[in-house]
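Lab notebook page, bench 4
Experiment: in silico fold of construct C2
Operator: M.H.
Input chain length: 295 residues
Purpose: comparison with the prior construct
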Amino acid sequence: MTIMSRKPMVPLLFAMLAVPAWAGLSAQEQGQEPAQGENPITVLGSPPADLSGLTAGPEIGGFISARNGEKIQVTAADGSRTAILLADATEIRGSGGFLGLGRTGLAADSLLNGLPVTVKTVQWGEGLIASRIELKNKDLKTATMIRTGTAQGFAEQTAATEALRGRVADIDQYNIKGTTNVHFDTGKWNLTPQGEADLCAAAEQAKATDNALLLVIGYTDSVGDEDYNQTLSERRAGRVVNYLQQRCGWAPYRMLTPTGMAEADPLADNSTPEGKAQNRRVSVNIMVSKAVEGL
């Protein structure tokens, strides 16, 4: 398989990481009728080495719910399942580093159960072959930790364990206990001395809060186009996450999946310089799961 890297993709829910052993992809292969919404395939021979001449199939988004040899099953948010073949020509593209700020190569054995993926496919017979699989290295790290049982401090805190297993679930499942905003100059993502001090103060506040997790969200003002601002907001969030972990001693496994929101959800009017300055921010939210509140 070809191993490549890519720029960041839209975050997916990292759900149902603990998946039982699975003997085959399709219900047909197991002598059963396929469940509604499932796309079973029957394998006849080996996939072709060259996929360029095949008809494009649908793009499948979801998480890997099972794998059997050179076949994977992807379960979408609506519960539908699609069986997809892997081929020698299948490209695996992973965004490296936090928020995709770096680039690393990935091996085929990185396709673990529970891993969120986006799969571009081509049609082959009555089934689908993956032409390209896109994933995030930070999600791969979490899936690997759970699979091997080496997650740092999983037993230390129930909420942290659930954060790693579920990543970002519905935000309504959490109570916000505090918010700290750090601000940035136009087009910049470097932290000011004041911002650095505020981040460590927020981390100390969170450490004193039982079962606390941190949710980091980056924003921009309205200057610049959408793609530029999306990248900028992610870079700002990535810089904040790195500082919290490396300088403020915040444990990675107590971090909800960060994101960049570009110019969405402004705090102030973008028509004034003062308003734009307030909107060039990263929001650090102290979160406690409602499920463990009061434990």
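Observations: Residues 2-142 form one domain. The longest strand covers residues 56-68.
Next step: discuss at group meeting.
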